[in-house]
Amino acid sequence: MTDETRVPAELDNQRADLVVARLAEVSRAVAKKAIEAGGVTVDGATCDPATRLHTGQALTIEIVEVVNEVVPEAVEFGVRYESPAVRVIDKPPGVVVHPGAGNATGTLAAGLLERFDDTLGDEHRWGLVHRLDKDTSGLLLVARTPEAHEALTDAMRKREVRRSYLSVVAGTVPSATGTIEAPLGRDPNAPTRIAVQTGGRHAVTHYARAAEWPGFALLDIELETGRTHQIRVHLGAIDLPVVGDGAYGDVSDSANPANPGRVWLHAYRLGFVDPSIGEEVTVLAPLPDDLVASLERLGKPAVGTVPTI
């Protein structure tokens, strides 16, 4: 990933590796390697991991995960849209998007290489413009050319790509619509987790209640920003944890009728300008069978309706 930002006041006089770790949402070890590799500049110049940074300094951060060569593999996924510039992939749950530590095989990147002769190389992240968590299902943008990858990545950075999700949460939603605005960063006590943190990266999540049952609600969610684990952390922070997400607050067991056996989160809609035609495109992905089954177990909603995709 590449990011450009400024040192916030909350991180004034902190070490560069700490600042990069917080802002890029990576571990201190990854941040240190990025700095040592010259992937981080401060006011246009490289720095050392121990360099103290100060409020307002301009940072350019490039984090590149070093992995072994990706070997093409047969990996399950659907294709919901295709043009000369882009494909929209429907990722099933359980598939990791990018290769990395502990996930060298069975990734979506390997599946793209297996299925499509025009899949881009790792220098363009196999065409992948963004990511979904392993257990999250739904839509992903995949560029077919370097030019399209640059255009779509730029559109994502400018928040011109509309991303909508459906999620069942545990609890009672206090209002029909809402916005969660809270900065996110690495949890200092658990490096694999994200937390609401002063000095974290700006993050905004909008939601609307689509349906409700006693103790559960189906939310239609739109991301204004796209931070790691953003929906899960934001909803957990307001006591509406995503069903099946034990990491961020759901304590239900497998006997819970709403629990599909994984995080109840599906990226069902993508809206973007297709670089090959210069027009807005909206792509939808129906709910996968496991999520449909959980809704059937809940029965008819007490409030609202389950949207038809």
How do you describe this structure in short?
With 309 residues, the chain is an alpha+beta fold.
What does this protein structure show overall?
With 309 residues, this protein is of the alpha+beta class. The strands form four sheets. Strands 7, 8, 9, 10, 11, 14, 15, 16, 17 and 18 form a ten-stranded mixed beta sheet that branches. It has a four-stranded antiparallel beta sheet with strand order 1-6-3-4. It is globular, with a radius of gyration of 20 Å. It is built from six helices and 18 strands. Helices cover 18% and strands 32% of the residues. It has three domains: 2-62, Roll (Structural Genomics Hypothetical 15.5 Kd Protein In mrcA-pckA Intergenic Region, Chain A), CATH 3.10.290.10; 78-156, Pseudouridine synthase; 163-304, 2-Layer Sandwich (Pseudouridine synthase). It starts with a strand and ends in a 5-residue tail after the last strand.
Report the portion of residues in β strands: 25-35%
Q: How much is the average pLDDT?
A: 90
Look at the helices and sheets and give the structural class.
alpha+beta
Radius of gyration: 20 Å
Q: Count the helices. How many?
A: 6
What is the CATH T-level topology of the largest domain?
Pseudouridine synthase
CATH architecture of the largest domain: 2-Layer Sandwich
**Number of E-state strands:** 18
Biggest sheet descriptor = 10 strands, mixed
What distance separates the N and C termini? Answer: 32 Å
Coarse morphology: globular
